[in-house]
Amino acid sequence: MKPLKVRSMFDVQALRQDFPILSRQVHGKPLVYLDNAATTQKPQAVIEALVHFYQHHNANIHRAIHTLGEEATAAYEETRAKVAQFINAPRPETIVFTRNATEALNLVAYAWGRHNLGPGDEILLTEMEHHSNLVPWQRLAQEVGAVVRYIGVTDEGTLALDGLDEIIGEKTKLVGVTHVSNALGTINPVREIVAAAHRKGALVVVDGAQSVPHMPVDVQALDCDFLAFSGHKMLGPTGVGVLYGRYELLEAMEPFLTGGEMIRRVRLDGATWNDVPWKFEAGTPNIADVIAFGAALDYLSALGMENVRAHEEALTAYTLRRLRQLEDIIVYGPKDASQRGGVISFNYPDIHPHDVGTILDREGLAIRAGHHCAQPLMRRLGVTGTVRASFYIYNTPEEADALIEGVEKVRAFFGDASR
Ligand code: C6P
Predict the structure, then answer these.
(1) What is the pLDDT of residues 248-277, one digit of tens each?
(2) What fold, for 12-42+305-417?
(3) Looking at ligand 1, which atom is closest to the CA of residue 35?
(4) What order of strands is seen across the sheet that includes strand 368-370?
(5) Would you tell me which of 79, 172, 241, 341 could form a disulfide with 98, CB atoms 3.0–4.6 Å apart?
(6) Ligand 1 pocket, 182 CB below 6 A?
(7) 243 C-alpha to center of ligand 1: Å?
(8) Which residues are identified as catalytic?
(9) What is the distance between the alpha carbons of residues 17 and 15, in angstroms, rounded to a whole number?
(10) What is the pTM of this model?
(11) 12-42+305-417 and 47-301: identical CATH topology
């Protein structure tokens, strides 16, 4: 098949020069990095922002009155403002920095859930949630006597939303839904789910870990109550997560972790809390990585998230077309690339995903094989795991071709499935 001309709005070959790691070899082959749903590579601008901070501005924030402290505080808070702008949050104070999406989701379960859910209340999740938007709620439900229910997954890998207004019951107090499935790539109709939940007075927490890095996400348009995501999946350093929360909700919530920085006044008989969002940022935060995350946001904003989405959609459509031409292969998730992010999960019925992953690694291809922290979904699909390729801004049609060639080699190595 002729390699696809991905009509990107940016020059992918030029952009690749910004990522030092992309020029390395693995097992003597050029690295083809297709594990972007796990974490993305970092451009030089982000690496330099990190080094620059430590070389020129390093200090603790919010407490020092010296110049370095003021500079560090300003840069940290500037990233908060950039995050707010990136997801069109109404004000920077609605942005809380955490370690990752997982911690952001736990924050909601602890700080909102423990005080707002009780016996018999229902938490409605989906069968395609990542464990990070599932286990905290199961644990909370056990603690407070709430009940967890699930929206099912269809054979096409979409949410079974028929009768949504009945699925969300009078007792449903919280709906938790992933915007884009990390295992299937399915883009869920979050706006409709939020509208249905709000009609019943339920709040909605959206797991944006696989959407915010890949497409324009506007929290005001979605009208969600909480949105969680991770900086490391969008060119930023590890150790930075984001929780967006509706301001009134954050203000009414109890703190998550307690200690330094999150207090207003402490006496021997008790304490009062700092303003939102600092009430939720106890102790010294991940200052340097947050500031470098700001450089990642600048990089993505310069590309334009519409363009990022268009690039990934074209690459996904091309790869899906090529994969489906291979004999025996099972590809999961929606047929149409317009309904999915840049994540493609597949299996050979007779070959373990780890074996596929090991052979692909020998070809320089980095993919993920396993349950993708979505074990209930794997059970629904009737598998223990899948092979998953996931794209980002620097991936090319030639790399998609390398994936197909690698998969063909796997088939050849194991022989025909019918034998
Ligand atoms: N998914 C993957 O390979 P953390 O680890 O906290 O940064 O992100 C957690 C998380 C939450 N929700 C979704 C939808 C995710 O995909 C992830 C992370 C990685 O799919 C690691 S399991």
Answers:
(1) 999 999 999 999 999 999 999 999 999 999
(2) Aspartate Aminotransferase, domain 1 (3.90.1150)
(3) 3
(4) 330-331, 343-347, 386-390, 368-370
(5) 241
(6) yes
(7) 14
(8) 373
(9) 5
(10) 0.97
(11) no
What is the domain partition of the chain in residue ranges?
12-42+305-417, 47-301
Average pLDDT, the chain: 96
Alpha-carbon span 337 to 321, nearest angstrom:
10
pLDDT digits (tens, 9 = 90+) for 294-325: 999 999 999 999 999 999 999 999 999 999 99
Token pair for residue 247? 């301001």
pLDDT digits (tens, 9 = 90+) for 114-157: 999 999 999 999 999 999 999 999 999 999 999 999 999 999 99
Tens of pLDDT, residues 193-221: 999 999 999 999 999 999 999 999 999 99
Q: Ligand 1 centroid to 152 CA: how many Å?
A: 20
Q: CATH number of the domain at 47-301, please?
A: 3.40.640.10
The pLDDT, as a whole number, for residue 418 is 64
d(CA 262, CA 276): 9
Which residue is associated with the tokens 């403002």? 81
Structural contact between residues 369 and 354, judged by C-beta atoms closer than 8 angstroms: yes
CA distances to 56, 58, 73, 289, 293 from 68, in Å: 8, 7, 8, 17, 19
